[in-house]
DNA sequence: GTAGCGATGTATCGGGCCGATACATCGAGG
DNA sequence: CCTCGATGTATCGGCCCGATACATCGCTAC
């Protein structure tokens, strides 16, 4: 799961570990608070061994700081890595529908083609519906067997499930009618800068707006 | 975390692994779908080594089935185990406030004294408030930097945070005024059988209603 | 000036938990 | 008779986490 997220971020721009962690935290803030270094660095090593990314010492003509005494390793995605990213984005296994997996996939939906988006959204909905049914069963059948606090926990969980299903339903409707997301529970009035109409190409469009040096 | 849950369930009645897993699933359905055997059995082994539980082959005069060719190991909590359970219930570290940890603690609130309940509820609230502030920051500051889907994910997450804070607030209020939980978002009308007034003793009352054979 | 402090930065280690897998028994139905 | 699904115990590789260690930079305060 982390692999997908890292590849996705490195596709936007090369980065070093620390930066990557921060970006991960803001992009996936809902899913996991902050990725641990004990996860990040081994994963980066794995990705490097697999040939999906390369690491290089930051050249001195970098940003402002550092006279490059120690480290500052910059990670960059390779062609294989981009291919891998596209594969991971498109294929949906069972782990695509759990909380973490779904969150990561969703966070990169703007790089996913519509058919896959719909498939994932529907798979997730089914998953949550199953959890919901399980909770309803417990609440109606095993109610007397459980104490008041456990019951309250189940009720709260059921509530969350129902809300998420409604959210997913809305997103699915929007996808089918070709609209972009947002404008659901409008409490913020953020400009939503880019890609509001969202043409939606095939798969893995090579980014549009933000200028970045892919490779020289 | 699992340790607490297992000890808690075994305190009600001895069980074998399969049963334990099912009980775990219904009691913690909101938190984790179903515990893996790859987690359960090693944990049971650990608990046994630590002396918190004992395992014994089920005697033939058990329920109906099994002529006891192979296995059916029944796990039972020890005095040390009960002590350990009480310790884990009362002490609250940082992991007490993450999703899984809080859920497990909450599920055993009927065995927790009120002061501890309040401490945990408030710790959890603070945790969620921090997450909420982080999401608000991202939504207001980094909005233009993120695509519509990522933004929608954050909005949904923020919504969930706000709702959970409200839920916790309600629970805290109820605790302070001595009422039991429930009756919050009334959509079910389950009798709530036992302990609605809830006297709340010290800690670890030795079960009340359900008849069960602790040992023959 | 220099001493401390907080942010930046890279890296490892032990351990918890998961999914996949294997194996074994039992009752019910074709 | 024989398969199928529920019950049941157990291990293995692998992901991910928290704790920990170490090193540098820029700032403020003494």
From TrEMBL, chains A, B:
Ranges annotated as biased composition (Basic and acidic residues): 205-216
SUPFAM superfamilies recorded: Winged helix' DNA-binding domain (SSF46785)
Residues in Transcription regulator PadR N-terminal domain copies: 6-86
UniProt KW DNA-binding keyword: yes
Region (Disordered) residue spans: 176-216
Pfam families in the cross-refs: PadR
InterPro entries in the cross-refs: Metal_resp_DNA-bind_regulator, Tscrpt_reg_PadR_N, WH-like_DNA-bd_sf, WH_DNA-bd_sf
GO terms of molecular function: DNA binding
Domain of life where this protein originates: Bacteria
Keywords, ordered alphabetically: DNA-binding
Protein name: DNA-binding transcriptional regulator, PadR family
Native source species: Paractinoplanes atraurantiacus
């Amino acid at each position: 799961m982390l692999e997908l997220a890292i590849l996705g971020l490195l596709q936007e721009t090369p980065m070093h570990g620390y930066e990557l962690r921060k970006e991960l935290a803001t992009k996936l803030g809902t899913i996991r608070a902050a990725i641990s270094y004990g996860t990040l660095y081994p994963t980066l090593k794995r990705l490097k061994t697999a040939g999906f990314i390369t690491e290089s010492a930051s050249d001195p003509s970098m940003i402002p700081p550092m006279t490059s005494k120690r480290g500052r390793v910059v990670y960059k995605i390779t062609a294989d890595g981009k291919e891998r990213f596209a594969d991971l984005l498109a294929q949906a296994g069972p782990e695509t529908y759990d909380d973490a997996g779904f969150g990561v996939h969703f966070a990169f939906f703007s790089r996913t083609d519509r058919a896959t988006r719909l498939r994932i959204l529907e798979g997730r909905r089914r998953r949550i519906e199953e959890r919901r049914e399980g909770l309803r069963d417990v609440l109606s059948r095993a109610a007397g067997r459980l104490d008041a606090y456990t019951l309250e926990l189940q009720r709260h969980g059921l509530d969350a499930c129902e809300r998420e299903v409604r959210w997913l339903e809305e997103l699915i409707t929007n996808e089918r009618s070709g609209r972009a997301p947002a404008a659901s529970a409008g409490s913020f009035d953020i400009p939503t800068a880019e890609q509001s109409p969202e043409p939606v190409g095939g798969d893995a469009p090579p980014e549009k707006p933000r200028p970045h040096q892919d490779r020289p």
